[in-house]
Amino acid sequence: MGAATDGAEIVRLSKEHAELKPVADAVMAVARARDELPELEEMAKAGDPEMAAMAQDELQALNDRLPGLEHEVALLLAPKDKDENASAILEVRAGTGGDEAALFAGDLFRMYQRYAQTRGWRVEIDSISEGEVGGYKEIIASITGDGVFGRLKFESGVHRVQRVPETEAGGRIHTSAATVAVLPEVENVEIEIRDQDLRIDTYRSSGAGGQHVNKTDSAVRITHLPTGIVVTSSEKSQHQNRARAMKVLQARLYDQQREALDSARADARKNQVGSGDRSERIRTYNFPQGRVTDHRINLTLYNLAKVIEGEGLDDVINPLIAEDQAARLSALEDEYN
Question: Which of 259, 293, 309 is the endpoint of a domain?
Answer without folding.
Answer: 259
